[in-house]
Amino acid sequence: MAMKIRLARGGSKKRPFYRIVATDSRMPRDGRFLEKLGTYNPLLPKDSEDRIKMDVERVKHWLSEGAQPTDRVARFLEAAGVIEKKTRSNPDKAKPGKKAQERADERASKAAAAAEASAAPAEEAAAEETAE
């Protein structure tokens, strides 16, 4: 049986609240689970102690049984020091899209043209002053 440690959503519309659960991976997200391991309330501030609560001993038990945490739960476990931090590499995430790059290039070329135009009259004025 493929076990997962994942989030099961609760709460009302636009007011999410999650339970951290150990479940069979074939079960629906909010469906049957084997054990509730903790809670996660994303509406609380990040420095709040009540934002994430877990029973670390039970989480370690399920990990030893072969349960795989989802990405979000793995981040919680890394922050709690239960599992080692993985290196994630997504270098394209920070790059702007194609249209944004085109707009930036266009802005840069306009700025360069404006700088050349403003530099040319200043050079001519300097040349006139030295000629007098």
TrEMBL record:
Residues 84-132 are annotated as: Disordered. Residues 84-109 have a biased composition (Basic and acidic residues). Keywords: Ribonucleoprotein, Ribosomal protein. GO terms for cellular component: cytoplasm; small ribosomal subunit. Residues 110-124 have a biased composition (Low complexity). GO terms for biological process: translation. HAMAP family: Ribosomal_bS16. This is Small ribosomal subunit protein bS16. It holds the Pfam family Ribosomal_S16. One of its GO terms (molecular function) is structural constituent of ribosome. Belongs to the bacterial ribosomal protein bS16 family. It comes from Silicimonas algicola. InterPro entries: Ribosomal_bS16, Ribosomal_bS16_dom_sf. Transmembrane segments: none annotated. It comes from the Bacteria.
